[in-house]
Write a structure and sequence with these properties.
alpha/beta; about 35% helix
Length: about 375
């Protein structure tokens, strides 16, 4: 799943910027304050990973519009089908028919839509057929956005949660035992089935439901009846009070990352690593996560991978990003030529200011101009003149 076309309108300093024929990797290069970070943030917004704030709108407070063409391969469709995205049909033919019916802008392997956000905070996905197609967000890839702060908690938690047992994820989501698409309403209609099983036959999820049932009937049932007696009398039958019992499995079972170093007596959290090593760790985590072919499509956005890194580690970071681009789409900005070497010229776009002083993307890539823009020359990269 890849963004093949992108148009951004009325976002931050960008009035109108578009890029065509985007490949599995997109590298944004250019001088400071030309809009590279704004492009990354706009993509994150369109994918539901960022919510625009008042400062993102122009003076006229015009709607932010981000138009995207999302290419879907046959593998992407198969993963969406297995994940019951958009439609719950179990047969492929029925699922695909329902999928194309609910997403009419899907054509020739691409899904087109426009993300629209207004100043009042309303967000919608316009596909040209519906002003707001509620099914579109279900198709969007997971986004991992590494900005300059290199905050890792959210991304690490998301990635590690997918490595946990499927039963634990069901418990964490608090879904219905009979239908994973529904949230548990604590109707306890599953208890009859569970009572027919021996303790050895029960799995962890079923055991949790039994625990909730026992706790509810031992404590909350009688207490809620007493509360309702008083409340109905005192409020003159204003309504019925109910209590929701949650075991907070997600808080009980959490995966934490630690690192053991030779010069330190005890392991310490990876969150305490320096920002440079944090970048390498997160890229390594993503690389390990993406090794499994069953993963849902993802999109990596990264701001200046080279910051906080020694030139040798910059090259290592570039190699990791190149390998990741074979598994998921990678979009990043950079000021370092060390990040450009593994990629081809079609994957590099120069961001400049046009005659009006507004961000624009050059249609054709000229590596000499790009190196000059970065303050380098071919002689610098080849170490010509060094003895």
């Amino acid at each position: 799943m890849e963004i093949s076309y992108l148009q951004i309108r009325n976002f931050k300093s960008i009035e109108s910027l578009s890029m065509h024929n985007i490949e599995s990797a997109l590298i944004l290069v250019g001088q400071n304050s030309v809009g590279k970070s704004s492009i990354l943030t706009a993509i994150a917004a369109a994918m539901g990973e960022y919510t625009p704030v008042p400062a993102d709108f122009n003076r006229q407070r015009q709607n932010i519009e981000i138009s995207i063409a999302l290419s879907l391969s046959s593998k992407d469709l198969q993963l969406l089908f297995e994940g019951k995205r958009v439609s719950a049909y179990k047969r492929w033919d029925s699922w695909f028919k329902d999928f194309t019916s609910k997403l009419p802008s899907y054509k020739d392997g691409a899904l087109t839509f426009t993300y629209v956000a207004n100043y009042n905070g309303n967000i919608r996905y316009n596909d040209g057929f519906h002003k707001n197609n509620r099914y579109l967000p279900q198709v969007l890839p997971s986004v991992y956005y590494l900005d300059s702060s290199r905050s890792m908690e959210k991304i690490q938690h998301h990635l590690l949660s997918f490595l946990e047992d499927d039963l634990l994820n069901q418990m964490r989501m608090d879904c219905c035992l009979f239908d994973r698409q529904k949230t548990c309403s604590h109707c306890f209609s599953c208890i009859g089935l569970l009572n027919q099983k021996t303790p050895e036959e029960l799995n962890a999820f079923e055991t949790e439901k039994l625990l909730e049932y026992k706790l509810y009937h031992l404590n909350l049932k009688d207490f809620s009846q007493r509360v309702n007696q008083h409340f109905s009398r005192n409020s003159r039958f204003h309504g019925k009070i109910t209590y929701d019992l949650t075991c907070h499995t997600g808080e009980i079972f959490q995966v934490q990352g630690y690192i053991q170093q030779k010069n330190r007596p005890a392991p310490f959290p990876v969150s305490q690593l320096g920002k440079g090593m944090r970048s390498i760790y997160l890229l390594s985590l993503l690389e390990a996560y993406m090794e499994e072919d069953s993963r849902m499509p993802s999109l990596l956005l990264m701001e200046d991978p080279e910051i906080y890194l020694h030139p040798q580690l910059q090259k290592t970071s570039s190699d990791i990003l190149y390998r990741l681009s074979r598994k998921c789409q990678v979009i990043f900005s950079t000021h370092s030529p060390n990040l450009l070497f593994p990629f081809n010229s079609r994957q590099i776009r120069q961001i400049v200011l046009n005659q009006e002083g507004l961000p624009a993307a050059r249609e054709k890539t000229n590596l000499s101009l790009i190196l000059d823009d970065l303050g380098y020359s071919a002689a610098d990269l080849l170490n010509v003149g060094f003895v």
